[in-house]
Structures are given as structure tokens and as C-alpha cells.
Amino acid sequence: MERVDFSCVELTGGFFKEKQNLIREVTAKAVYDRFCDTGRFEAFKLDKNGVEPHIFWDSDVAKWIEGVAYLTMEKKEPALEKIVDDLVLEIEKNQLECGYFNLHYIYHNKKHFENRDNHELYCLGHLIEAGVAYYQATGKRKLLDLMIKYVDYVEKRFKIDKDTGFTTPGHEEIELALVRLYEVTGDKRHLDLAEFFVNERGKRREDPEGYWCGGEYNQSHKEVRAQDSAEGHAVRATYLYCAMADLAKKTGDVSLKNACKSLFDSIASKRMYITGSIGSTYQSESFTLDYDLPNLTAYTETCASIGLVLFAQRMLLLENDSKYADVIERAIYNGIMSGISLDGKGFYYTNPQELIPVLRERNHCVYENREYFPEAQRREVFECSCCPPNIVRFIPSIGNLIYTTDGDKIYIHQFMESKAKFEIGGQSVEIEQKTAYPFDGKIEIVVKGNATVFVRVPEWYDSVGGYVEYKCQGATKISLDYEMKPTLIEANPRVVDGCGKCAIMRGPLVYCMEQIDNGKYLRDITIPVNCQFKEGYDKSLCVPTLEVDGYRRVENGKLYQKYTGEKREIKAKLIPYFAILNRGTTEMQIWHNVR
Amino acid sequence: MERVDFSCVELTGGFFKEKQNLIREVTAKAVYDRFCDTGRFEAFKLDKNGVEPHIFWDSDVAKWIEGVAYLTMEKKEPALEKIVDDLVLEIEKNQLECGYFNLHYIYHNKKHFENRDNHELYCLGHLIEAGVAYYQATGKRKLLDLMIKYVDYVEKRFKIDKDTGFTTPGHEEIELALVRLYEVTGDKRHLDLAEFFVNERGKRREDPEGYWCGGEYNQSHKEVRAQDSAEGHAVRATYLYCAMADLAKKTGDVSLKNACKSLFDSIASKRMYITGSIGSTYQSESFTLDYDLPNLTAYTETCASIGLVLFAQRMLLLENDSKYADVIERAIYNGIMSGISLDGKGFYYTNPQELIPVLRERNHCVYENREYFPEAQRREVFECSCCPPNIVRFIPSIGNLIYTTDGDKIYIHQFMESKAKFEIGGQSVEIEQKTAYPFDGKIEIVVKGNATVFVRVPEWYDSVGGYVEYKCQGATKISLDYEMKPTLIEANPRVVDGCGKCAIMRGPLVYCMEQIDNGKYLRDITIPVNCQFKEGYDKSLCVPTLEVDGYRRVENGKLYQKYTGEKREIKAKLIPYFAILNRGTTEMQIWHNVR
Fold it and tell me: For B404-428, what is the mean pLDDT?
């Protein structure tokens, strides 16, 4: 199986086209402005009297560069390109003779590669990805070449001289980046170095005694082929799993492939929120246990959901199974898009799965170690700013997720209004999709060329899922109608926060209630299982809505009383989850009592 | 209104008689043994080469002494008396010239009264209560006199010289103890000193800047008459409110009485668990917000529930309102009795309101600042051992809660098989109750004497509550039948953890489910609202049980799926909450999905 690169795919309308426009017109600049405010661009001057760089600033900016590259792939952005070019000159100027480049370490003149937790290789990884993307977008290879030189130095220190303070990095990223580098350079040393970092991981304990989290935190508790459950920090984990899948594909390593399959199933069958978000606890921002998906205290970092999609995308290159595409769909329309505000300027690090704002006051007289609740509102600027630029690079390249090829077969995994043109079996094929997905399940696909086309049947439409085969000759029209009916969804009985409740989905979209539409104490609302939904539209949010008859209890001020069964009928209004909390802080819930 | 002291009341059978026997035969000795193991008795030798006393050990032993005194009131326990007498000699020997006595401070030769958080006055308070009780039980007044001398010193330092490092103690207890002392000595200085400590509280900030909790923690955020919601550490709070109620009674201070009423209602209407337990968070072991009663993370300390009952008991001396007796009933049969194991040797500090043991593994790779969950099993020994001796003194004196008098009126607040004889309006009255309460609502009361008797109507039986008046002449028989039918109880809609659920009560007893009877994933069980209950008996626990038809969902391994409505009918078994977790660690829940 092969990827069909987003550069072969042009979104022509619909949901993600709008979002790409938003990134191009608002977000890329907004993130740039915030990065300037915080000194992230200034830091590249490496002025000892200037701003002091944090250990991860290189990566924030690198992801932003990658995003600019992807925007440029579709349409030139001269102003943004200028910023990048100037930045690359600064990198060139400050890169050490040996090839090393790291803002924080050079600023402080610190010894390289002593502390696996200080993000050196993590930053390099993102700079590599930026270099690759920028080269592919503009033909300019300076950044790429600078990073190749740095990689040579890394290979020397870690693999040849073996004189570093650690063997594998505390935050995975370099591994998948080196595979990307290899795909561009064809230099087998780059692939080998990726393999080295993946294979060495977990062989011996690299964290100090009493490290605040166990080896699971950074997936160093076992060698990777022995790992069969998703553990630890969710972003670190998914970035590692991406590299494992890449290597399994490139090397044909079956044990690595099997580990990837186990890890994916561990997430998708037992450790994933209905929004496609992952990361159940703020403690080490990580996975916890099977079926442990608490809503009020979910961590569910935007970057983690993106990581899950990148992992799932790579699994599709290992085997054609619609479950991977179903997870991608779930995340891109829900748990990732919640990460950016509708106006394109605000971001969530943690994405609430339920919000009851008053509970934040629970420890109003406690100053330390307060109970964790996710942030109620998105922010324009962050201290740890990994998520905003991750969105900036993810959305413009979302075309990566739509198609794969397998010999002369084409797989259509995602439905987006688009035109694609790519080579398969020596011939050129064009595929056009017309659809209002995710709001409507009608999809018109026109295939120009000779190919066998497999079209995904979404699992929400038909739980059997899979792909339907179409043998296409000349110009073939495929008309689909994946009818979207609002549906009650239940969770596995082991999911504590799902018991007695249902979520509501319509097509791939998870819907939710907000207090601003429904009043306080959303938890008191009950929906009858035989409910009818009415479809509507919210003009302020510009999103479709659902309305359903439900009821609340009658409150009489008593704390405890005999069950009365007294009800007050109400009409509950629901909005798509991706649009949450764009109207101020308010209660929000995905899971509702049903009866 | 006046108390009818438990010394006038003899339990002759039934639930609390059995518990009193347990305290006498097992618990008093078990606690003594554990106190010996930990050095709490040894510490009274104040041997500088011996065991180092903690700051609160005096109070642990004092409460134990008080318990021994109460047991002795009913029947002599020579061996225990000897232990107390020996201990009192040690106290006498080591009490400083000035009157001061404190194990930790004398051991370390520390300056007195510098740090309000170090429990000096707290320990004195419990020693006073021990001295009073022991004198009333045995006629021996040495301990009492030693404490009177200490109180003189406290008065001198705090009230006259005003040269202490703080004005009001960080842990309330001295206030109510001084009132008890006054009741025995008649010395108005003792009452005045209680008033002093209560009135000075909250007048000025006494905790250092950056104190880890705000003034609410120890109810010092406002002067007491201005406090209208229960805040902070639940034991500290209720002990303060006891003293406030005592003083309101003794002085007729209306603003103090009104504050007490607000504080009581704050707890009983908005901040109390269905078990009569209080304290919603481990953070400062305290109250949080109105209606904030999370089950999985409840703190609900045994001592706090006892404190609530002691407070409610005092409110009955301020006004005849059955709501106070209803709260007493709720706590004594549920949230307090859960604090001791059925075999009398194990104790809960925190009493789980829901238990899902696997969740404790949520942070299996985190070493610090783990999420809080209550202990699953009771323990025989504790570092902080306030709860076990609190139970040892509470249960033998539980007769305190049954009757009050008001002129020539007698109020029967609680129903326990018992014989009581006391004076009212110059004549002797005898009241005998025959009942199997809390398991049966039939109560036969025989009143010998002339009095107007008011009998409480439990709120669980008739939500109007109140008292029914009986004019009694000669020998009067009152036959009651408060029929106990298993009932679904709902919580106020603002209680997040109660939404969509009901608890089950039968009479005053809260029932609950345990995994050992019903299988894992109790949260998945649903009870139909029109359910029928069957009554049974558990021979291993020796408690009545309930059985009810309910259902679980059919699990098919999927994480999310369309709601199917498929059910698997089950019979759910419930046991009384006070008997929880006597059969090993198991899931336990009070609130169940209903439909």
C-alpha cells in the first residue's frame, strides 16, 4: 500500500476546505503573532542578552514552518515564505560546526545529549519534518540540508561513538522524522538510525531512580515489540507508534507490525473517547487503564488526537482495514477540531469531554495540588505551545488521509469535496468527490481512469464497515447515500462514565449539549430512548443543530426525597462537539441520561 | 430543653445494644492493643529515651478514656479502670508546675502555645472530656482536677496575659469541652473561656501568609456569627458548631443560634451525603460547595459524621425540630456505623461512598500526587487515630440521643430497645421501648408517669416529619408501626453524581450493592422504577438484605455502538451500607441507574 500525498489532492469545498481557508487566512498568522509575542522567533537570533529559549521552542516553530510549507504547496504565501527563509538563515548562522542545533542548549552553552527529557531529539525531529516539507513545497533545501548535517552528528554521537548520556529520547518524534527524511534522501543510514532509536527503546532503564513516572511514561518499560497496550504520555506514545508502523512497512518486520496492531486495538477498543480523543489523566498526560475514560477529568490533548490519526494513517499502509479510517474520521471531525476555536485564533491544549464549571471552585480555599479539571476556554497563547502549530500543519495536509493505493487498487477512506490526480499502475487517475460531508452522507464520486476502487462504508452507517469494490473503467460515477440519522450511542458497560447514558451522533459528528442552550445542571436532563430528533441550524455558530424532546426533574429544594417520577418536559438542543465552548464558559456534556 | 443523659438510659436489646456489647467485649481492648503497639500509652511515661509522641496522641488516648468511662457507667470494667488510673498518675506526675500538660511539647521541651496548628488545645479539650466523663462514671476526680488546673493556665495565658502566639486554636474542640467542664464545675470562668475562644475566632487572620488553605479550613474566615455555610475541615467545623450551639443555649444569644441554624441547614440541605456523612474532598478533608457530593472521591471521615451528630443533638436543645433527629438517625445507622467493621476491630478513617477498586490503578506509573481515592479496607491501626477512639466513646453513650425534655414535655427522637428512667417536673418517669429498629418499624413504647410525650415521625416514613403528641397518665402504651418499605430515593437535581440514579433505603437504612454479590461493573446495573423488592438475610454478615429485579446490558466487546436496548435480566442483592466491605475489597455503590 502507498500513500496518496495531499499534494495530489485539492479540497474544493466543504468543511475542511473552510478550515483550510481559516488556517491560511487567520490561524497561521495568529500563531505567528503569538509566537512573536512570546519571543519564539526572536530566540532564533540566539542573542545572549535576548530572550531565553525554552527547551521545546524549536519544535513549535518547526511545526509552524511545516504548516507554512503545506499552505504553500497549494498556493504561494510570499510573506510567510520570507519569514521562513530568514529563520533558516538564522539557523544556518547559529548551527554549531559539528552540526548540532538547539536554541536552549546553544543559548546556555550546555553539554549535548546528557538529559533524555530535554527534548533535543524531539526538536530535531520536528525541524527535519519542517525541512522535508519546505523542500517539497518550495524546492528550497537549505533547512533540509542543515538538518541532514545535524543528523550526521546525531548518528555519530548515539550510534557510532555511543558517548551520549542517554540512548533513546524521552519524547519520541525523531524516529518518525528520520523515516520521513529517508523517504526524501534515500540514504539508508537515515532509516537505520530510526530503527536504532526504536529498537534500543526499553532495552535498559534510562530514567533515574525515583523518576516521577515509571517507564511507561515514555514507553520505555519494555522493548517495543513486547508492548501490547497503549501506556504513558499519549503524544509520546502515538509518535512512537507512528515510527513503529513506518518501520514495519519499510522493513516488513512482522513482529513490529503485530505490536502496532495490538497497540492500535488497545487504543481504539479500550482507551479512546467517543470523540477520538485520547489521554485519560492529567497525571503524566497519559493513558490509564482499559475502559477508564472519565469525562470530567479527561486530559485529551489535541496533539494526542493528531498523533492517533497519524498512527492510524500509517496502519492503513500495513493493512486495508476500515477500522483505521473510522478512527481517523472520528478524530478529525470531533476531538481534533475541538482543538481550535471557530474564529481560528484560540486553541485547546486539553479538550473537555464534559464541563461543569462550578466544580472548579471545589477547592476554593486550597492553594496547592488542586484537583485537576481541564481549561474551560481556549487560549490564544500558551507556555507549552505544541498544539496550535500542530493544527497549523495538520489541517492543510489533511488530504493525506483520503486515499491510499495498493497495486492497481485505490482506497477511498475519507469523504471530502475534492479533486485528486495521481499515478497508479503507470496511468494517471482523477477522482472527484462532491459531498457536504460530514453534514450530509450523499457523496458523488467520479473516477476517471481504470482502477478498482474500494470505498469505505463508515462504521456509524453499517457496523460491519469494510469497503465496497467498484471496478472503474473510463469515467465512472459512484453515487453513495450514507444516510445520517441522529443516533443514540452507548459505551461498553465497563466504561464507568457511560453507564446509564448515551451519546448522540449524526454521521461522524458527535453532538453535545451546552448550558447556554439548555440551562444549568445538564446532568439532570434525561432523553427517552425512543426519542425523535429535529434538525436545525445555529446562526451564531454556523453549525447544524439537533433538537430532541427530553425532560428534567422537578426541583423542590430537598436534598434527598422519595423518587417521585415528576418530570418537566423540555426540548434539548445539541451542537456538534467540534463547536464546543465558542460562546463563553458554560456547562457541556456529551453523555446524557437515557430512559 | 434539656438532655436526658445516657446514664439514665439502658439499651436492653437490638442493634445498638449489640454494638455496645461489641465495643465492650472487643473494640475497647482492640483499640487499647493498637495504641500500645504504636506507643501511645508508653508515651505517657515521657521518657526522653522512649517513644516520641505525636502532637495528637493525648487526644486519641483521652477519647479512649472517655469511652472506658461510658462503658463503666453501665457496668464496671476493673481492668480498664486500672489502666486509666495508672495513666492519670502519669499525667499527674508529668504535668508541669504551671498546669500545662502535653506529651509532644513536654517531651520536646517546646515553648507553649506558639503554633495554632499543633493541637495543644485540641488535646486539652479531649482530656477535659475524659476527665468529666471519668468523674461522672467513677467518682474519681483526679484527672478532672488536673485538667482544671491546666485550664486555669490556659485562661491566664490566652485571656489575661494574652501573650500566646495565637488566640484561637487551629483545631476546634476546646470550646465544647470547656462548656462540658462548666456543666460539672459550675465555674463561670469555664463558660467565659469557651465564649472567648468562640468569639475571638475569625476576628483577625491568625494563619501565616501562604497558608496552604484559606481561612475557611479552620473556620477562621469570618467571625462565627457571620458564618452561614459549612466550610473547611469537616471535623473542625462540626466541633466548632457544637460549641456555638452550646453557648447559644447557655447564654440565649440569638445571633449565635441563628448562625447555628444556618450552618446546620447548610450541611443537611446541601452538603451531606445520603449516609449522613460529610466532607466531600480529601483536600483539607473538607466541605466544598453546595450540592457537590462526588461519590468516588468522597472523604467522609468517620469523626466528621460523629461531629455532625453531636452538633445535631445540641440543636435539639435549641429548638424542637425533627429534622435534627432525622439527621442523627441518618448518620448513626449509616455513615458512622460504616466506620467500624462488623468484627469490631477495623476502622475507616474515610468511608467510601462508592468504590471501584480498579480505578486505584489509574496512575500505576505515577509516583507522586496520585489521584485520591478512599481506602478500600478498614484498618486496625492508623497513624492518625482519631476515628477509632471516637467510636469507642460514641457508641456506649448513644443513649444521649434518644430523649430530651422541655418543661413537662418529653421528646422521643430515636427508637432503640431500651429502658429509661429520669426526672421531669419533679417526678420520676420511666419509658420502655421495645423495637427491632432499624430493621423493623414497629415500636412499643410504655410510659410510666405523667407527661406529654412527643414521638418523632421519621422523615423517611412521612416527609412532613414532626412529632405526634401523646398525653400520658399513669401507664400509657404507645404502639407505632412505621412500616418500612424499600424505597427509591433521589437526590436534588444539582447533585451531579445523583442524576439518573436512585439510592435504596428501607426505613433509616441506606442499602447498597457490592460486587461480591452482583458481579463486576456495578455501574452497569439498572433498576426499573416500578421494581419490587424481596427481603432476605445474609448469614455471613448477619444482616438483612434486599433483592430486586434489574438488568445489565449485553456486552459484546465493542467500545461504542448504536444503542441496542438489549438487556440481561439479573437479580441484584443489596446489603445495608453500614456492613460494607466486610468481605474483602469489592466494588460498592449506593446510587444505581434507574429507568
Answer: 95
